[in-house]
Design goal:
The complex is a heterotrimer of chains A (653), B (481) and C (124). Chain A has 653 residues and is mostly helical. Chain A contains 26 helices and four strands. The radius of gyration of chain A is 28 Å and the shape is globular. The relative contact order of chain A is 0.07. Chain B has a domain of 211 residues. In chain B, strand 1 and strand 2 form a beta hairpin. In chain B, helix 16 runs antiparallel to helix 18. The longest helix of chain B is centred in the middle third of the chain and has 32 residues. The longest helix of chain C has 28 residues. By secondary structure, chain C is mostly helical. Helices cover 71% and strands 0% of the residues of chain C. The chains are: A mainly alpha (653), B mainly alpha (481), C mainly alpha (124). Chains B and C meet through helix 2 of B and helix 6 of C.
Chain lengths: 653, 481, 124
């Protein structure tokens, strides 16, 4: 049964091949979208079947590797294409295929009438295929293939409307934004590559299980472990948009909204979390690297959340929110709360996909308008979108019993318990406050208040059922998803192990937890309840502040902006990170490339060498051509000469 | 006796079927279509028989040790049949377009494959010789198949004269080996040349080996016995060239591997070292001469002819290495080369469609990507594979051979091989550049490849599959030794 | 010992070569000594060739049909030669020999049918 794992990536691949090669021939949009959605849906069905098969097995037998074929073999270097189905990878596979299916269905409505309809679905299916390779792989190299593959798909999809304009620092077209994303990712990929080299050199293999076991049994030099972990984390910061490589995600919003929901919120950007979680043992052996992870995560969470407060583009707010939430996840990883991180990946996938799809519905209904200052009062025009968006907003703000509360609260508690009892918790709490504030600001500006758009030009309307159906499903998940991870403090009366996800993922992280000295201790601290109450209070405070400022039309926000002009501008321009990079890094590279690499190295040295070599070869060829006279006798003569030389050499030499 | 026939099933089966094809053609007037169909069927049947014998126990022989059965030979049988099927499928549209379809073409292809079967299966110098002659004589005739074309006739005559000339040396080499070892059978020779006592006249044996290598070098177009190749490959009908330059070369190497293993049983002996050095030098010279000469060619068939010389040089690296890895590397390369080279030539034949003027020169390929995008894409796949760029078959072919050479201590040879590969980038990629980045003002009517399309798709698929999962064939190749 | 053996076993050959050489050479000189020295006209010095013109171009053109017949003759003639050694060893070879020769003849016959059907044996 578990050997059927290869089917999970196979269906999207088939879907990609069909929509990619015959998409233009299949005239019907419904057929193309149907095939693409069905491909992912089938994968989800297989993944679900495998999941239930796994649940039927004892906890220590829930890891199964399916070898497809031997991929590369050179000397001792051996890499297989093999899929590893275990507790972690199946959770990711379910998220990817499940939310993927919903977003495919949604896209059928959203992309209706686009001239490149088949191309869009081909890319989406290819993305799902690559993402599944990433999470199901049993070795670093296959994950890296998926890693690069999703990067490619992300690039293709950000620039999907390649002829549209898009504004940003040094960005004029969507293609520039795609380039930015790709380059930022490449910097991270470089880290992963070097990490792989180091891992192979240290452990002699690239298979996850073998590497992690070897590291746990005989930990190598701490310096090497730290280097490996930091390099892997560098890759994660690229893919998961953490500082210092966070700059690309907001600009990635140039792509179609379903893409933002699928790739840039729910799945691809969580690949970094996956990479760290998959190698929890390696990170546990490198405490310094863990600290770096935690610090970067916390900083990113705060920085992005504060930027989100002042943005006016509906998708950019969500983008900064995503960066911030990813920061929460890394903070959790950094303090060794791996389960909490994966839990938040899951709930975040639900409500952030919901919010993005909702924003897509709004944009769709508003005829491509994205500025929330030009919206307002959409409540009555889009009831379904409004209702589901509100659910998503409450969920992300952390109000119980919706999904966001459970996962975020677990992260907060963990950072408090294992992260130095204070500073990290405080920063994250501030970020959580900002989250509640900017999300409700977004909500009120979009759906509440007066209508600020031109009634003669715009007629907002609710979206078709293909778009509202996924919204409803995701809204449902955002409501109930949190109950998979009920903390002990709240569920102790029902069972000894109320946290289903923790039970499920436990064996995966047991090695790492062992190294970190975390047993399965369950005790209730009074302070946990206090902090829980505090975090609810913080969220409520954020919501109340937002409703005070934005529920009704008022001059207060503008006043505040004027009052704190410096701070406001700093936030509006995203701490000027883009400009700093532009000045320090980008322009330096441009100058160096042009002045030295191009005009000196390439033109003078490389071209000179190549032209010289080419000329030598040409003239050698010309002289050889003269020997080839076309006269048979001459050929025979040369042959005789050859025979004589060879025989003489054999006889004498 | 019956068991012998069963164990060597592909050979008698194809011989009988080829004879039937010949008779069928004589009996039925205007029955070329049926002859064609029957030929394809015959090759498929032979391939099935080869697969059937593939899993015989090691060292099974038949007919008083004259031939070996199964394993090694059977694998090559499959490769030859595959080449034959690809050629036949593409040959029909080609021959119809030039209005020269006769049943003899098909039976000659089948007969030449019979010869190749014998070569790959030979366990005796006599069988080897008969195989070589059956194959070569078929090739001589096939080269001159377009008998109204001056080029075709010239190619045929040149090939025949030089081939006959070198055959004398080949037979002389065999005679010297017989004189020294006292036997023609591989097993007996192997017994005779082993140990300190060795053969009776070591010098005569050495010269015999030299002449044998020279004779086979001619068949596989190794420098300095390569000069017929460009003239013949250019002059012969393109579809024949496709077959000769791939299956013919594969056959020559299928003879090389076992005979060298028999003649140099101990890889550390001075004789083996000397022969290894000879092969390495020939290989290096062949790669350089082939690739450098190809750079200045304007005619595409001639360019590919020189490139095929160079590829023979690469394959010879595996012989020089003299190891299992070298031998299995050659087997892999032969398979990969079959797909990429035959694909390229079939593509040319599909484009020229029986004319001797269309698509002959490199400049005719300018702007092909606009006129026939699919053809241009396929050609690019073949060219990239010939260059040795991953993920295509050619890359792993080279990779295995280069590794084998390094492992056997021929680092200098590998360096030369890499240099000459770099040179080859110039003309392979040059063709792609012409197809995609140059404009052409020549208008083109629609040309459909017909059956040749099937060959092209199979070849391209082979190139890609071998490039993506090389392990599959590599494992089989290693299991042959 | 080995070297000696070669010389001894090739001795008759050496003698034959020597005799042949001496015989050929002596004939030339004998003709010069014994032959007539009178009437050295062109006609008298001519080679006797049954009335055919002895001096003309050697590259005369024949109809291709002659070549065809000649080749077919040689092919079939030489194949038949194989039957002599086979006949001599017929009993020792036994059944296998019989089957082999039957196969051989069948192939030969197939070739013959082909030649016949293709009309290579008709003159016009």
């Amino acid at each position: 049964m578990l050997d059927l794992a290869y089917l999970i990536p196979l269906f999207p691949l088939i879907g990609f091949l069909i929509t990619g090669f015959f998409g233009k021939k299949l005239k019907s949009e419904a057929l193309i979208g149907g095939i693409a959605s069905a491909a992912v849906g089938l994968s989800f069905a297989v993944a679900a079947t495998l999941f239930f098969t796994l649940t039927g097995l004892p906890a220590d037998a829930r890891s199964h590797t399916t070898y497809i074929f031997s991929w590369l073999a050179a000397g001792n270097f051996n890499v297989d294409v093999a899929y590893q189905v275990d507790q972690l990878s199946i959770v990711y596979a379910l998220i990817v295929t499940g939310i993927g299916t919903l977003i495919h269905i949604y896209s059928m409505g959203y992309m209706h009438g686009d001239k490149s309809y088949p191309r869009f679905f081909a890319y989406l299916n290819l993305f799902i295929f690559m993402m599944l390779n990433l999470v199901l792989a049993n070795n670093f190299l296959l994950t890296f293939l998926g890693w690069e593959g999703v990067g490619l798909c992300s690039y293709l999809l950000i620039g999907f409307w390649y002829d549209r304009k898009f504004e940003g620092v040094n960005i004029r077209f969507t293609g520039d934004a795609a380039n930015k994303a790709f380059i930022a990712n490449r910097i991270g990929d470089f880290g992963v590559l070097i990490a792989m080299f180091l891992i192979y050199k240290t452990f002699g293999t690239l298979e996850y299980n073998a590497v992690n076991t070897a590291a746990a049994v005989a930990p190598p030099d701490a310096g090497i472990m730290t280097a490996i972990a930091l390099l892997l984390f560098l890759g994660s910061t690229g893919k998961s948009a953490q500082l210092p490589l966070a700059v690309w995600l907001p600009d990635a919003m140039a792509g179609p909204t379903p893409v933002s929901a699928l790739i840039h919120a729910a799945t691809m950007v969580t690949a970094g979390i996956f990479l760290v979680a998959r190698n929890a043992t390696l990170f546990a052996l490198a405490p310094d690297a863990m600290t770096v992870v935690a610090v970067v995560g916390v900083t990113t969470a705060l920085v992005a959340a504060t930027i989100g407060i002042v943005q006016n583009d509906i998708k950019k707010v969500l983008a900064y929110s995503t960066v911030s939430q990813l920061g929460f996840m890394f903070a959790a990883l950094g303090v060794g709360a791996f389960t909490a991180a994966v839990f938040h990946v899951m709930t975040h996938a639900f409500f952030k996909a919901l919010l993005f799809l909702g924003s897509g519905s709004v944009i769709h209904g508003m005829h491509e308008e994205q500025d929330i200052q030009k919206m307002g009062g959409l409540k009555k025009y889009m009831p379904v979108t409004h209702r589901t968006f509100l659910i998503g907003t409450i969920a992300i703000s952390g109000i119980p019993p919706l999904a966001g509360f459970f996962s975020k609260d677990e992260i907060l508690w963990m950072t408090f318990e294992h992260g130095g009892h204070g500073p990290m918790w405080i920063i994250l709490a501030i970020a959580a406050f900002c989250t509640a504030f900017y999300m409700f600001r977004l909500y009120y500006l979009t759906f509440g208040g007066k209508e600020r758009f031109d009634h003669h030009r715009l007629h907002p309307h609710e979206s078709p059922v293909t778009m509202t159906l996924p919204l409803n499903v995701l809204a449902f998940l955002s409501v109930v998803g949190g109950f998979l991870g009920v903390p002990y403090a709240l569920g102790f009366f029902a069972s000894d192990h109320p946290n289903l996800l923790e039970n499920w993922l436990g064996p995966i992280f047991s090695q790492a937890n062992g190294i970190l000295g975390r047993g399965e201790h369950h005790s209730i601290h009074a302070i946990e309840y206090v902090l829980m109450a505090a975090s609810i209070a913080i969220a409520t405070a954020g919501i109340l502040l937002a409703s005070k400022l934005y529920k009704e039309e008022s001059e207060k926000p503008a006043e505040l902006a004027r009052k704190f002009k410096g701070a406001y501008n700093l936030l509006l321009h995203k701490y000027r990170i883009d400009e700093i990079y532009q000045a320090l890094v980008v322009s330096f590279i441009y100058q160096f490339s042009e002045r030295f690499l191009w005009k000196v190295f390439d033109v003078k040295i490389v071209d000179g060498l190549i032209n010289g070599a080419a000329k030598t070869t040409q003239s050698a060829g010309e002289s050889l051509r003269r020997i080839q006279s076309g006269v048979t006798q001459n050929y025979a003569l040369l042959m005789i000469a050859g025979i004589v030389v060879i025989l003489t050499w054999l006889a004498v030499g | 006796m019956l068991q012998d026939f069963l164990n060597s099933a592909p050979i008698p089966l194809l011989s009988a079927l080829a004879t039937l094809v010949m008779l069928l053609d004589a009996m039925k007037r205007d029955g070329a279509r049926i002859v064609f169909g029957f030929s394809v069927f015959s090759l498929t049947a032979a391939m099935a028989a080869a697969i059937y014998t593939m899993f015989l126990p090691d060292k099974t022989t038949a007919f008083n040790n004259m031939i070996t059965c199964g394993g090694y030979g059977a694998y090559f049988d499959i490769v030859f049949c595959l080449g034959g099927v690809l050629t036949l499928l593409a040959a029909r549209p080609f021959l119809l377009a030039s209005n020269t379809e006769h049943g003899e073409f098909y039976s000659l292809i089948l007969f030449s494959i019979c010869g190749m079967f014998l070569i790959a299966h030979s366990n005796n110098l006599l069988t080897l010789f008969i195989g070589i002659e059956v194959m070569s004589v078929s090739f001589y005739i096939l080269s001159g198949y377009l008998r109204t074309s001056r080029f075709s006739i010239e190619a045929s005559l040149k090939y025949f004269l030089l081939g006959a000339f070198i055959t004398g040396f080949l037979v002389y080499g065999m005679a010297l080996i017989y004189g020294s070892a006292g036997a023609l059978g591989y097993n007996e020779i192997y017994q005779a040349v082993q140990g300190e006592t060795g053969a009776r006249f070591p010098m005569i044996l050495l010269l015999g080996m030299g002449l044998l290598i020279i004779g086979l070098s001619f068949k596989s177009a190794i420098f300095p016995f390569h000069q017929w190749a460009p003239d013949v490959y250019q002059g012969a009908p393109t579809i024949v060239t496709a077959f000769m330059s791939t299956a013919g070369k594969a056959a020559a190497f299928s003879a090389f591997i076992p005979i060298l293993a028999v003649l140099t049983p101990e890889s550390s002996s001075p004789v083996a070292a000397k022969i290894g050095m000879l092969l390495a030098v020939l290989s290096a010279a062949t790669m350089l001469v082939g690739n450098i000469s190809a750079v200045v060619q304007k005619n595409i068939k001639r360019m590919l002819a020189y490139s095929s010389v160079a590829h023979a040089g690469y394959m010879m690296m595996g012989l020089a290495a003299g190891s299992v890895r070298g031998a299995s590397g050659i087997v892999f390369y032969v398979t990969a080369y079959m797909f990429m080279q035959i694909g390229a030539f079939i593509l040319i034949s599909a484009l020229e469609r029986g004319s001797e003027e269309r698509y002959q020169n490199l400049e005719d390929y300018a702007g092909l990507a606009k006129k026939h995008p699919v053809m241009a894409a396929l050609m690019s796949v073949f060219m990239l594979s010939l260059t040795g760029i991953p993920p295509f078959a050619g890359f792993f072919g080279k990779y295995y051979l280069f590794t084998a050479a390094i492992e056997s201590g021929y680092t200098w040879l590998t360096i030369i091989a890499v240099i000459s590969s770099v040179i080859s980038v110039y003309f392979y990629i040059g063709l792609i550049v012409a197809m995609y980045f140059r404009e052409s003002d020549v208008q083109e009517q629609d040309s459909r490849p017909g059956l040749a399309g099937i060959s092209l798709v199979i070849s391209a698929a082979g190139v890609i599959i071998l490039g993506v999962i090389p392990q599959f064939i590599d494992k089989i190749a290693k299991s042959l030794f | 010992m080995g070297e000696n053996n070669i010389v001894v076993s090739y001795l008759p050959l050496i003698v034959m070569v020597a005799v042949g050489f001496v015989f050929g050479l002596s004939n030339v000189f004998l003709a010069e000594i014994l032959g007539s020295r009178r009437n050295k006209t062109n006609v008298k010095l001519d080679t006797y060739e049954c009335g055919m013109e002895p001096v003309k171009t050697a590259r005369e053109r024949f109809s291709v049909k002659f070549y065809l017949v000649a080749m077919l003759f040689i092919v079939f003639d030489i194949e038949i030669v194989f039957m002599y050694p086979w006949a001599v060893k017929f009993r020792e070879l036994g059944e296998i020999g019989l089957v082999a020769m039957l196969l051989f003849m069948a192939l030969l016959f197939a070739g013959f049918v082909y030649v016949y059907k293709k009309g290579a044996l008709t003159w016009d």
